[in-house]
Amino acid sequence: MFFLTRDALSVHSCKMQNRTEFFVNATSPQSFSVIIKVCVVIPLFCIFLCCIAVMLQIFASHRQFLDTSRYVLFAHMLINDTLQILSSVLLFLCVMGQVKFPLLFCVPLLYVSTGTFQNTTLILAAMSLERYVAIFYPLHRPAYWHSDRIWIIILPLWLISFMFPIIEFFIGKQNPTVDVLSSNMLCKATIINSSKSQGMYRFAVNVLFFAVVGVIILFTYVRILLETRKLQQDRASVSKAMNTVLLHGFQLLLCMLAFTHPISETLTVLNTNWLAEDIAFFNYFCFILMPRFLSPLIYGFRDQSLRKHIGKRFLCCSKEDKSLLKYRFRFQSSMNCLLCRS
Asked: How buried is 65 (Cβ within 10 angstroms: 0-12 exposed, 13-18 middle, 19+ buried)?
């Protein structure tokens, strides 16, 4: 027989107590709510990534898309929205798990999330202007609107959208007690950029971005609408361009749903007894995450050429799965026959 000493017994009892506390915390209502939220977000995020990967693979493998400036801009929007959703979901998981880490790792995540959020609106404006140029200058299109020179327009969009978050970060007064490497904190924009001046600056920049882009989309839509009344020929392509610009306006409205967060939060507090964490998740899922999921997918699946290639991709995958199942069934049946003979 083995006899446990008093120290061994105390260590054993501490371990058992820690395990009990772990299982109690894991099965608590709050932990169960966190698990449900994560299980809702992660599958949607994976579906979104699969669709984006399919569309980007189609762009890379077909020269006709790379030679069209509209599709090049759309590919950049897909990359931008993927970075935005990826950083947003990582921040969401960190907040849900109450993960605290140094400011050095938190600031880049917030920087990418904010910059890509603003860059989406600029890309939508560029796509609307591209339709305007294609209708009004079909033969004498400016050089920088060609597919091989479109980077001249895309590069300033990325620089402008990522310049404003840097200014916002340096506007606020930094706490001298916070160490960049050793001070751990929750990675939230309201904690990092918490001063009133930063809040006012952020609000002014967002209003400026969406106002300018809204005016550009409205201008291009009205101009193309007036052009359809003048032209007797090629009305189909002009009306198609008008519908495309209208779709960009709808995508802009989806992005603007993020600004309804204070109103929806107030209405939810008044009409429900939800916890603050549940209200924050509801607003994040409905007004930030879902519009970002839907905006590029609606545009991608609406396009006839792109939709045709996407359908072929999924048909090929389903045929490969069916053929694999047939080979597996034949292999199993042959093995069963061999076993029966033996």
From this structure: buried
